[in-house]
Amino acid sequence: VEAAELVTTANQALLEIEAGYAEGAPRPKAVRELFRALHTIKGLAGMVGVEAIVEIAHGLETLIRTADRAGGQLGRAAVEVSLQGVRAIGDRVRAVAEQRTPAAAPERLLAAIANTDPTAEPLAAAPVMSSAVDARLSASERQQLSQALGSHTPAWTLSFVPSEANAARGVTIGSVRAQLAALGDIVKVAPRTRKADDGAQLGIAFDIVLISSASREAIAEVIASPADSVVAIVPIAPPTAALPVAQTDDADDADDARAEEGSPIGRAVVRVELGRLDDLQDQLSLLIVSRFRLDREIATHAERGHDVRGLRQVSELQGRQVRDLRRAILRARMVRVAEVLEPLSLLIRSLARTSHNEVRLELDTRDTELDKAVADRLLPALVHLVRNAVDHAIEPAAERVARGKPAFGTLRVSCREVAGNQLELAIRDDGRGIDRASIARRAGRAIDDDTELLEALCSPGFSTRDVATRTSGRGLGMDIVRRIAVADLGGELRLETAVGAGTTFTLRVPLTIAIIEVFSFECGRQAFVVPVAAIEEIFELGDAGITPPSAHGGRSRAQLLERRGKAIPVFSLGVELAIDDGARARKALVIRRNGEPVAFAVDRMLGRQEVVVRTLEDPLVHVPGVAGATDLGDGRPTLVLDLGELGLAVRERGV
Amino acid sequence: MPRLHVTFRVGNASYAVPAADVLHLESYDTATYVPGAPAYVAGLVQVRGRLVPVIDLRVRFGLPAIEHTIDRRVVVVQVGTRVAGLIVDSAREVVKLDDAAFEKPPEIIEQQTAGFVKAVATIASRLYLLVDVPRIIGEELTP
Questions:
Q1: Helix, strand, or coil (residue A562)
Q2: Strands in A419-573 per DSSP E
Q3: Which letter does DSSP use for residue A564 in this model?
Q4: What digits encode the pLDDT tens for the residues A17-64?
Q5: Closest-CA residue of chain A to B33
């Protein structure tokens, strides 16, 4: 898992470096990050003895180290070969995770890595300093400086002139060095000869380049505590000002944003298996149940005339704490959408290479977050949409230019949180749009608007494959996209398209989904499910089973059955639900209601599985006892029952 | 102004609903019974991935139940944000009906249909009853 994460980091760093080319700005931090990621991968692979990964990582590491020494710039060719290398590592990491034997390192790749000149096609964009010191900085020192400036740490140039007066007070170049090092990072200390006629007795001065967040005054004090020392502290101009490509403020802001949020390093992150979070949630539901019991006990005491005010206060406080805990657990399941969408950048890259279309991906995820379980289910749908857009919707460059569009296509994925705890994701391309008429011909029916168009595209098996490249360009796997968004996640899928201008798919999905483990069973010839967590035990009803109470319209009656020396009321679920068909109930599901066991007799058990629960919002079917519905795979809704609530509700209605 | 209407039959009468309110027409097989829902709610169906409650118009109109036939359809309608299905005996045609052709229903019909019919129109000697969809799907329930 950790290795997979590192592969992602490496890829991010490479894409970052590549983005640097587009903007004319180097990404020295990304180069370092890439190096670190590869180094750790190598170490991990060495520990578990996966030679292939060690070899590739080592090759890349060497390549990048050379680049770093030469100024921290990775040429285009080097980025290309590195991406290949990282992909090869990724493949093998997956293989190991799936307990397959990873393939040996491909000779050709190793050779390519070894033969790549890391600095070919670099950017001439090292920070330029007005000072004469600039000329004396080595490539790596310049690198260090630009890194600091990139992260908005101030840098300074200053001169220290040793004098007898200074020396008398113990201020020498040695002490200055030591003190400056305490304030920040010394990039360079360069001695130069000075003319003796300006008052200083020694014909030597030290030009110092310092990276430090300390105040100008603090630095001045170190070297210039005596008044006669000549001091010059000049903040070096930020590199952007000297870059050949003019950058707008917006671009700067974007850079800042990337520096802050783009890198997972710097945020403390602990990886947790989703299953453990599920456990936590299960434990929490037990806590909620015991809280109800506590409340009930308090009520009983109150009835007996005891003073329970103190207990009530504690119980209410605890109730709030449980709610907060629940929220905290939900938050823990959330992942940043920016990270969820990260694979799309790689996808675009590889697709663009095979289709020879240049496509730029713009991601606008703001600060949105999404339940990991939703994210995992959603990603395949997004991959489908992105693939379709690149393969079919974006026209070849020549055609685009002929239509007066930019030669490169733009695919924009934006998302925002909308009302109702939903996330809205829009995937917009500026391609050729979808031609309704041609889809209508293929679908064999009239299409009047985008809704009907989407309907046609999403028909199972509908494909525009043979006309894809010329006219429509969509339809491949759209039924899967809709199944994921609508049926699996209970969301929505919309489409807007304009011929010649592009297409936007909009998905709305819930931020979190309830995936629970359920028992499925049959009762009155209808299938139902109940959460496994709600069921205390399931037992076989004896030969006698239970006799359904005579159906003369009276209240439903429970029979008492002895179970482990205790009498348990057993209700016939079929009777409670008014769907009893006279079949003999064979199994009983035991739940706890107000702390007391209560059993419901059902016809037969079907199985145990994990399902996505969708809530029923329409008031027509928003009834007590029904927690939601799910699809057990037959395309029909199956109700998720809340047996505790159901029993109460049925009794209240006096059925 | 002539508007498209989806027409359907329930019992012996023909009904109409503005096509603009209709999302789809689906064949009807069976619905998942929802215990505790109003009696006229036949249950839940899944229409193109969406969970839709369906209303049996025979029950809603107080008509006797019939044997299942292959002609039965679900007219999926949308009212505001709510989506519901109407189970009808059959639905085939989409006709253009002029707003002007609709008249206030005779009192006897209004009484018999419990206010579910808000207008009637006679086109080519056929009587169409324009149904009040919000009322049928229980507008009083709308949050």
A1: strand
A2: 422-429, 492-498, 502-510, 514-523, 526-531, 537-540, 559-563, 566-572
A3: T
A4: 666 655 556 666 677 777 777 777 777 776 666 777 878 888 887 777
A5: A526
SS3 of residue A537 by DSSP: strand
- Taking the alpha carbons at both ends of chain B, their separation in whole angstroms is 32
Phi/psi-derived region of residue A71, left when phi > 0, alpha when psi is between -120 and 50, beta in every other case: left
Which helix (H) or strand (E) element contains residue B123? strand B117-123
CB-CB contact of A216 with A233 (8 Å):
yes
CB contact under 8 A, B36 and A614: no
Residue A140: enclosing H or E segment and its boundaries? helix A139-150
Contacts of A614 in chain B (CB under 8 A): 51
As a whole number of angstroms, the distance between CA A409 and CA A598 comes to 63
Compute how many other C-beta atoms are within 10 angstroms of the C-beta atom of residue B10.
22
| pLDDT tens for each residue of A343-360 | 888 888 877 777 667 888
Q: Which two tokens stand for residue A295?
A: 């409340």
CB A429 within 8 A of CB A503: yes
The whole-angstrom distance between residue B111's C-alpha and the CA centroid of its chain comes to: 18
The sign one gets for the Cα dihedral A158, A159, A165, A171 is: positive
Distances (CA, A) of A319 to A200, A285, A456, A644: 76, 12, 50, 20
Gap between the Cα atoms of A182 and A167, Å rounded:
20
C-beta atoms of B34 and A639 within 8 A:
yes
Cα–Cα dist A415/A336, whole Å: 11
Q: Is B126 on the interface with A (CB under 8 A)?
A: no
List for chain A the helix, strand, coil content (%; round to 5). 45, 20, 30
- Residues (pLDDT < 50) of chain A are 121-132, 198-202, 225-266, 466-475, 549-555, 650, 652-655
Interface test with A, best of B41, B51, B59 (most A CBs within 10 A): B51
